[in-house]
Amino acid sequence: MEKKIFIGFLKDKGQRFTKERAAILQKTLSYHGHFDPESLYLKIRETGLKASRASVYRTLNLLCECGLIDKVRKTEHGTIYEYTFGHKHHDHMLCIMCGNTIEFCSEDLERLHEGLCTKQNFRGVNHTFEIRGYCKKCQKKRR
Amino acid sequence: MEKKIFIGFLKDKGQRFTKERAAILQKTLSYHGHFDPESLYLKIRETGLKASRASVYRTLNLLCECGLIDKVRKTEHGTIYEYTFGHKHHDHMLCIMCGNTIEFCSEDLERLHEGLCTKQNFRGVNHTFEIRGYCKKCQKKRR
DNA sequence: AATGATACTGAGAATCAATCTCAATAAAAA
DNA sequence: TTTTTATTGAGATTGATTCTCAGTATCATT
Ligand SMILES: [Mn+2]
Ligand SMILES: [Mn+2]
Ligand SMILES: [Zn+2]
Ligand SMILES: [Zn+2]
After folding, report:
1. Strand partners, A43
2. Do B95 and B41 belong to one domain?
3. Looking at strand D, which nucleotides approach a protein CB closer than 7 A?
4. Average of per-residue pLDDT values in chain B
5. pLDDT tens profile B16-28
6. Pairwise CB contact (< 8 Å): B132 & A123
7. Which residue of A has its CA nearest to B113?
8. Which of A2, A105, A140, B80 could bridge to B72 as Cys pair (CB 3.0-4.6 Å)?
9. Is the domain of A65 the same as that of A111?
């Protein structure tokens, strides 16, 4: 399914679905949570597949363009991605102590998005909402 | 006022309020909107004041630590800051066509922040909400 | 004022994610 | 087959940010 979409996307741009791109797509889909380009690159090498870092970066950009994945956040250590196609949109809470992220969906937030855009004459395409603070575990540790 | 706070913050850490730090604080306060370290550095040089890039980066980190400024967002061209002390918290809409940002305050959003944290047993400290899309002007240009 | 301890500065080096270069290669088109 | 076009990867490059460290400034104590 995702393969079809990616191939179609590439065809429209006059580009090709190579085995490197296939490997990168496959490993991308294998992630359930967030991931970064370097660990994707290592995962590919571990499994005997082949693709250079350059191709990983290039292909992740293509996958973003065609809407299969999204950039979650830029950190001081690089960009975090997640596979989003077919997943319900969600937002994140980020623990500033342990680094864990909690994902959540909020209908209220989606409604608020619409309302705010209407009020400002803004044509909203997407949003990110990130709450930083302390997760349950770290609240205890801290005290 | 801000100077007092910064000086107090530095004193508590056993650090000093030097003329370089004074220059950086002064120019930081002179920004009404968002800014980046490089243009702050250039602004300082233009006005005959002196501070190296290293000191600019170091001092911006200190100003973040003491709560006078905040990082707004990380872009592919670096970090965007804004002077937030004494300003009501706000969030942003970002035009993906012209790059303009719209600032807005939403009580509903603040309430939602609280509600979501309660539901997830998360101790929220702060949040960022960013809506990406097309501003009024760019909607017209696009069609 | 002199001494010693500590913090600060800036020039340039180092770091590191991300992109670019470009010659070799593969796939598609003619 | 020949020609055209897209892709690849190794290594170079870029660019923001941080680090290094020797020289300087500031503070505290005598
Ligand atoms: Mn997620
Ligand atoms: Mn702002
Ligand atoms: Zn935690
Ligand atoms: Zn615009």
Report:
1. none
2. no
3. 5-11, 15-20, 26-27
4. 96
5. 999 999 999 999 9
6. no
7. A131
8. B80
9. no
Q: Which amino acid is at A68?
A: L
**How many CA atoms within 13 Å lie on the side-chain side of B92?**
20
Same domain, B69 and B99: no
Looking at the DSSP bridge assignments, the partners of residue B79 are B74
Domain span including residue A60: 2-83
DSSP string, A43-85: HHHHTT----HHHHHHHHHHHHHTTSEEEEEEETTEEEEEE-T
Q: Are B76 and B44 members of one domain? A: yes
Mean pLDDT, chain A, integer? 96
Cβ <8 Å between B109 and A106: no
d(CA A125, CA B2): 38
The mean pLDDT value for A75-88 works out to 95
Residues A70 and A99 in one domain: no
User: Does residue B133 sit in helix, strand or coil?
Assistant: strand
| Cα–Cα dist A17/B20, whole Å | 55
Residue numbers in A near B113 (CB within 8 A): 131
B4, burial (CB in 10 Å: exposed 0-12, middle 13-18, buried 19+): exposed
